[in-house]
Amino acid sequence: MHTDIPPPEHPAQQFDLRHHGDVEVGGGLIDFAVNVRTGTPPDWLADRLRASLSGLAAYPDPTPARRAVARRHGRAAAEVLLTAGAAEAFVLLARVLTPHRAVVVHPQFTEPEAALRAAGHDVERVVLGADFTLDPAAVPQDADLVVIGNPTNPTSVLHPAAAVARLARPGRTVVVDEAFMDCVPGEPESLAGRLPPGVVVIRSLTKTWGLAGLRAGYILAEPRLIAELAGAQPLWAVSTPALVAIEECSAPAAVAEADAWAAEMSAERDRLAAELAGRGLYVVPQARASFLCVRVPDGLGIRALLRQRGYAVRRGDTFPGLGTDWLRIAVRDRTANDDLLKVLGDLGI
Question: What pTM was computed for the model?
Answer without folding.
Answer: 0.94
